[in-house]
Amino acid sequence: MRLATWNVNSVNARLPRLTQWLETVGPDVVCLQETKTAQFPLAEVQALGYEVAAYGTGRWNGVAVLSRVGIDEVAQGFPGEPGFPDPEARAVGATCGGVRVWSIYVPNGRTPDDPHYAYKLEWLAALRAALAAELPAHPELAVCGDFNVAPTDADVWDPTVFAHSTHVTPPERAALASLRELGLADVVPTPMKGPHPFTYWDYRAGMFHQDKGMRIDLVYASQPLASRVASAYVDREARKGKGPSDHAPIVVEIA
Q1: Whole-angstrom distance, CA of residue 49 vs CA of residue 58
Q2: Is 247 marked active-site?
Q3: Whole-model pTM?
Q4: What is the pLDDT of residues 33-72, one digit of tens each?
Q5: How far apart are the first and last CA of the chain?
Q6: What class does CATH assign to 2-254?
């Protein structure tokens, strides 16, 4: 199975790039985030042989799972998921080819003193509880998406720039560690350029070309699934050209 995850930053705005990428890379299962639509472009994706489990409510957030190896047991959101104040379209789960796959878009948090930051931590805690309940029934499980947290200082281009900001605070990193304590492994991709497997670069001029990025898009896999990972890489090519997303996909080969 070729499993991928990509924050597309509006699926309709990136649709030509997405369909071309699907044809070129040929992933079996794709997790998308920030689709930003209640009307997912089903026809264009289905024409390429993919079934779709999409969850979107409008111009913000939105997630989807695309699969050409079947889709079963679709879940929009998870039990106990908090809202701000109402639940948002941030998680969709599906069983694809025998693997339980979750596409998630973790709340940004904004600033450490913003109510959205507390919501972010509550959301991650609820995600952990939901995954703990799922793992006994789904030993092969992957949680993929934009986590909006850099796991370590090595996952940001300059830790001093992010001091006192979200994405790098000890509570956020502790929440990721708590997910790993469930038995989930961080599938760290190989960078296509330079020493860092960054997945996000701000749109500001020069950030991408200078590789001033962050690794905030992650693939967490259960041990039975992680043991079958043959390779993983950041597809930087998808970040190049005209009108890209500010994120690059991660592609994982599972034997």
Answers
A1: 25
A2: yes
A3: 0.97
A4: 999 999 999 999 999 999 999 999 999 999 999 999 999 9
A5: 7
A6: alpha beta
Residue 89 amino acid letter:
A
The answer to whether 246 is annotated as binding is: yes
Question: SS3 breakdown of the chain: % helix, strand, coil, rounded to 5?
Answer: 25, 30, 45
Q: What angle do CA 61, 202, 149 make, to 5 degrees?
A: 60
Active site residue 146: yes
Write the pLDDT tens digit of every residue in 229-254: 999 999 999 999 999 999 999 999 99
Q: What angle do CA 4, 169, 155 make, to 5 degrees?
A: 40
Residue 233 appears among annotated catalytic residues: no
Query: Is 41 in contact with 67 (CB distance < 8 Å)?
Result: no
Four-residue CA torsion sign, 136, 123, 184, 230: positive
108 known ligand binder: no
User: Half-sphere exposure (CA, 13 Å, Cβ side) for 203?
Assistant: 6
Residue 99, pLDDT score = 98
Give the CA distances from residue 146 to residues 42, 72, 107, 242, in Å, rounded to whole numbers and listed in that order. Answer: 22, 23, 9, 22
Alpha carbon distance 190, 124 (integer Å): 26
